[in-house]
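the three lines:
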Amino acid sequence: MSAELVAGIAQWLRRLGGGVTGAVAQLGFVARFLVAVLWNTPHAFRRIHLTLREIYFTGVLSLVIILMSGLFVGMVLSLQGYETLKRYGADEQLGILVALALVRELGPVISGLLFASRAGSAITAEIGLMKTTEQLAAMEMMAVDPLARVVAPRFWGGVISMPLLAALFSAAGIFGGYLVGVRLIGIDSGAFWGQMQAGVDFWPDVTNGIIKSVVFGAAVSLISVFEGYNARPTAEGVASATTRTVVVSSLAILALDFVMTAFMFRGGNAV
Amino acid sequence: MNRAAIDLWVGIFVALGFGAILFLALKVGNLLTLDHTPGYRLEASFDNIGGLKLRAPVKAAGVVVGRVESVRLDKTTYEAVVTLRIDRDYQFTKDTIAAINTSGLLGEVYVGLDAGGDPTMLKDGDQIAKTQSAVVVEKLISQFLFDKASSPRASTPGDPVPAKAADQAAGGAKK
Amino acid sequence: MTIPRGKIVAIMGGSGCGKTTILRLIGGQLRPQSGRVRVGGLSVPDLAPSALYELRRRFGMLFQFGALFTDMSVFENIAFPMREHTALPEELIRDLVLMKLQAVGLRGAAQLMPTELSGGMARRVALARAIALDPLLVLYDEPFAGLDPISLGVVGQLIRRLNDALSITSIVVTHDVYESLKIVDYLYFVSEGRVIASGTPDEVRASSDRFVRQFVDGAPDGPVPFHYPAPAYREELFADVG
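prediction for all of em together
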């Protein structure tokens, strides 16, 4: 082996190691940030109005997109599901199909993705802009901790909004499924709701869906505030932080979804 | 946006959200339909319950009269002991047969009750004497093949075998 | 550098020489790699976080371009430090805010949002916010940057009058020589991270120090060179030939 090749490999290894330590350091940074945000939780709830304001901006203003998307997803599920179920003479199971798909998976996941792109990016941009215009520094100099006043309320606003949005998405979806399945296609209404009620268990289906949406809410909120707080204080910095929020949040949701689903539903329905 | 407006909208949002969760729990799921109808319990033992699940319906003449409350394995007889919760409105005779059926080929598994003519009724905690286990399709198929294989030699020595096979395939009526 | 109580001191220098860094050191946002930073006898870098916050409550800081909180009105911006650090009732806060606004001449603008203010007005609101809790020390980061001549005069006068009326100490970081000479008591000149000259306004105007002269006269070339360091001109122009 020539000296050049060895040097080249050594450099490549150094870069790899540097990348890994960088990633681990970043992870540690995020973890410390999370701890700092959680530490400031009491403040977010003592000044409850701050958190309420964030719930308004992330939750209430997302209602329209969540409800509409839920409705459409439910309708499509019903249409597609019917075609396949009909082949096995199981079209009466349509209610269960739509309900389980929504409550267990699509509700938390899709509303999480929508939340990340609408509310998450807005939070990142807002905090990043506050950093760029020195508002965060001004707050610090006025002896007010920005983590307590700006970051923690936004984090908890997101965590509270997400499960509610996911439930609304699922409800809208089931209604959409009902519209298509019963009204449009003509499946018996009693069979639709009856089979659904028999097949969807509060525990574990609905509760696992709620747990998932809470976890997604925490992940998206953490990523949004983190990226905003640590954005480079320039126009490009804020822009790239915003896109990173959406990308990383989406990947995090999908990865967490897999992990949680494997954990929650591995046994199938219990007898 | 002033405080009052924000508070109002957040209140509406949270109320809607909880409403949705309630809807999912009650209308879509079966949170309250579980153990709240006044009823009494009956027990039945089966060789094989097949795909019977908790909260599966208990039907008589196709009408839902109750739900499967619990299932356990009897450690001495190795039979499945199923606890049924029946609506108080319905009484069944002592010689009722409990059978595990499937509605359709891919449909749900349920417990069918077939009442007899005995004047005495079953009370809370009684055992249903006659039961019919689930039809396990694999056993049916294997018995069918077995029958096919053994039918050319269907002279006297072979007779008990097909009868026993048919008995096994049907799950066997107990006692 | 020593900044005596009750005086206005200007820190001047070209862009990027470290003026804002000095403010950040005083405020405890940065730690010095060497040397000391002492305020009122306390060593700032060694303070515990709670003690640091206590100290900051007695500072006011005016950021470049104001750094007003854009989601709150003018009134709420000024009320912010009061609401955060005191338990004063709302009526009292309202009176105090109006008094501060009156001092900077913007009492009528109390309900406007920061985005509706002109640069000069935003700067004055930020000044009112900086003195909201009657601080002992006020730090001004480029208070004159980007203002029209009238606003320049207004802000300069306000800095002087407030300093005297409230007996506060002011540190003004700026590169506006003209306005500074009108209002400050003492000046420091900083270049490349070092203090290279200092004096009262009269001393500075009469100074023969080359750097001070270049600064005061606004000459393009002198101790602070016009040309950014580069290879020899002739060599670079003819570099790709041949």
